[in-house]
């Protein structure tokens, strides 16, 4: 007799994110990463974007009720092993997602606080930043800001002289309620990229990576999804974070530039063979 369907199912990861038609970032990046890492992606679209590899032209947030309905339909049907949250598009959508995930406190939640694209397009306003801090940070197993996002999330707006170090930002974010904080160092003036994982008792690990040439679209989405995949597969947090960085670095190193703008990570780098590299004309 064939085993029941659930036994055949790979871990299911539910990503809430916005569509990026280029396939570089957003929900498309998440789906590629989760599938490449052996999970099955469930996807709830929070917003649509118009963009090419050079920049975001416009954003349309999906009605919050529609976001909630997409998620509830899935959650009532299938067992979710991890949540991953990316760009959410509006305060109403943030509130709807916060309410839904609060019904599942045992499911690991990876929050990628998308505030701007790598090219500087603003993807969240001040109201959304506050909603993320108040409603989602306390529910996050781990958040994965880059250093610019970490400063924006942690800065004390009432203190003009506030210039927190990255470890102080991490401390404040843990105080605000998330369990772990991974701050990525791509935007810092260091020879190598240094990504630091912090927990309730401060720094847990720092991983250093050779800085790759070029500008990549969707590296943060890839990293956060890879962490979610590892948590869904039962890997412990430190190893999940280390392996996810390795996966992301490999995907970036294998990246390609299909248009006039940024490089796109290749999340299927491991599936290419020497005889069939991308970029070569297919018959
Ligand atoms: O890389 C962050 C990001 C996330 N989600 C969507 C995006 C971007 C950056 O452009 O477009 C949909």
Automatic annotation (TrEMBL):
Molecular function via GO: hydroxymethylpyrimidine kinase activity; phosphomethylpyrimidine kinase activity
EC primary class: transferase
Gene Ontology process terms (BP): thiamine biosynthetic process; thiamine diphosphate biosynthetic process
GO cellular component terms given for this protein: cytosol
Pathway(s) the chain acts in: Cofactor biosynthesis; thiamine diphosphate biosynthesis
Domain Pyridoxamine kinase/Phosphomethylpyrimidine kinase per the UniProt entry, residue ranges: 20-262
TM stretches of this protein: none
EC number: 2.7.1.49
Pfam family membership, one: Phos_pyr_kin
Listed SUPFAM superfamilies: Ribokinase-like
Keyword field: Kinase, Transferase
PANTHER family attached to this UniProt entry: HYDROXYMETHYLPYRIMIDINE_PHOSPHOMETHYLPYRIMIDINE KINASE THI20-RELATED, PHOSPHOMETHYLPYRIMIDINE KINASE
Protein name: hydroxymethylpyrimidine kinase
Protein species of origin: Denitratisoma oestradiolicum
């Amino acid at each position: 007799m064939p085993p029941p369907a659930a036994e055949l199912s790979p871990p299911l990861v539910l990503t809430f994110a916005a569509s990026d038609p280029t396939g570089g970032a957003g929900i498309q990046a998440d789906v590629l990463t989760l599938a490449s890492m052996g999970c099955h992606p469930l996807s709830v679209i929070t917003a649509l974007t118009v963009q090419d590899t050079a920049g975001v032209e416009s954003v349309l947030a999906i009605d919050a009720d529609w976001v909630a309905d997409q998620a509830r339909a899935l959650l009532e049907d299938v067992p979710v092993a991890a949540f991953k949250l990316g760009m959410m598009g509006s305060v109403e959508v943030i509130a709807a997602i916060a309410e839904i995930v609060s019904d599942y406190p045992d499911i690991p939640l990876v929050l990628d606080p998308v505030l701007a694209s790598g090219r500087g397009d603003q993807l969240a306003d001040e109201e959304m930043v506050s909603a993320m801090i108040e409603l989602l940070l306390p529910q996050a197993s781990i958040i994965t800001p880059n250093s610019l996002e970490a400063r924006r999330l942690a800065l004390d707006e009432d203190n003009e002289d506030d210039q927190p170090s990255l470890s102080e930002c991490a401390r404040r974010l843990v105080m605000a309620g998330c369990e772990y904080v991974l701050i990525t160092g791509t935007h810092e003036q260091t020879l190598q990229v240094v990504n630091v994982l912090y927990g309730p008792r401060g720094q847990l690990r720092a991983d250093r990576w050779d800085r790759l040439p070029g500008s990549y679209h969707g590296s943060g989405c890839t990293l956060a999804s890879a962490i979610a995949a590892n948590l869904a597969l039962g890997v412990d947090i430190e190893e999940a974070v280390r392996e996810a960085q390795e996966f992301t670095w490999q995907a970036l190193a294998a990246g390609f530039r299909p248009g006039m703008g940024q490089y796109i990570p290749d999340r299927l780098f491991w599936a290419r063979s020497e005889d069939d590299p991308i970029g070569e004309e297919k018959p």
